[in-house]
# Entry
Amino acid sequence: MTELLPMLTTGATLAQIGDVFMHEVTLFHYLFVSAAMFALGVIGFLSRRNIIIMFLCTEMMFQGAGLAMIAFGRYHMNLTGDVFVIFILTIAAAESALALALVVLLYRRRETLDASAWAELRG
Amino acid sequence: MSLVANPFVLYLGIALGAIGVVVAMPRRGLSPQVIGALVAAAGLGLALLSMGIKAGENAPSLYFYVFALIALGASLRVITHPRPVYAALYFILTILASAGLYLILAAEFLAFALIIIYAGAILITYLFVIMLATESPSAEEPEAQGAYDRYSREPIASAVAGFALLAAIVGLIATGLGTAPPERRPMDTSSLIERMPRKVERSLVEAGLPANIRVERVLDDMTAQVAFPRGYEGDALIFPRPVEAGQTVNVPLPEGFTIDNIELVGWQLVGGHPLGLELAGIILLMALLGAVVLSRKQIQIDDDRKIEAAATMRGGAA
# Structure
């Protein structure tokens, strides 16, 4: 991995750095960061009460998953992980459009962003 | 084979991180965010240390640590900051640091796509909605905020749940990944080069061959079969040999001819997942329509107005 960065700065691409294999330990570092980002997203979703922040935390979970996919793609030397991250970006854009429209709708009804204002939806 | 020096150091780091997050969470009374952030950073450092000792020379570069620290620190601020606008801005910082991590992982196209789509488009929409849906602070109490932003709900329980999930994932990977190393080989791009004759043609012309050449076929990732319709005097360094008009010869590819990351991703996306691409388009269209339908203002019309409107419409048609 240490020889990877000089290659990157000189404009080498994945095709050229294909000979530099990523070690499992290096992969594990990236997976730890992605899992930590996912966990922080979960905590934020569970503990924050602002609807917008809750949706922001789901986006953070998307980020964690995407980082894991890119790292695995680099480790296995194929680009399926990259393509899946493109799809994740698409889904995240669609989800945020719908979610924010819902937030605007909910805010118009109750004049608050508090998620517990809708607690009766629990049934 | 385990990937960490001592799993208990890793778990200790994760537990410290959980304590730091709980301390930093906004709640009634004191919420010392600096102390919480420091404790969480210590936990992260402990966890990284337990991985780094085992890594030795395979440890990732310094830039990894920098970007990881920025990404996780900004993520912590996203979930602990009481003001939604600042939380969204810190999320942009998380995105930028993730893009840096993507760059280290040689995913250049996605790094910039991430910045453009997430930081540029999605987060701006979030900021707009935050500004639309937040009461403007009154003149006498500019710091007034809803209680739902100032106090979090069950910070201890949610931190325990989140970090138990983290410990389970990390523990499973640390002990389970090493058992079956996959067979790996360098990425083979020669078949892709064979399918891009126009790109080869362009690079050959740039290297000094006449502009009217035509690449008939790319034999492997070293040579190409090139037709010279007008002949060639052999004045370029890459192929110092005259060719008569109409002849087809094998020409070596220029030095440093490679396929870019964006071309690889493009082939993989369009060639490997065409159905997914179509479905993504449909999903985006549906989201667009759904957002329009959802955010349209609902107007209640009573029966008299409906009859009146119907009458005017009928009159207009006749």
Remarks:
- The first strand of chain B starts at residue 214 and ends at 218.
- Residues 190-252 of chain B form one domain.
- The beta strands of chain B are 214-218, 223-228, 247-252.
- Chain B is about 60% helix and 5% strand.
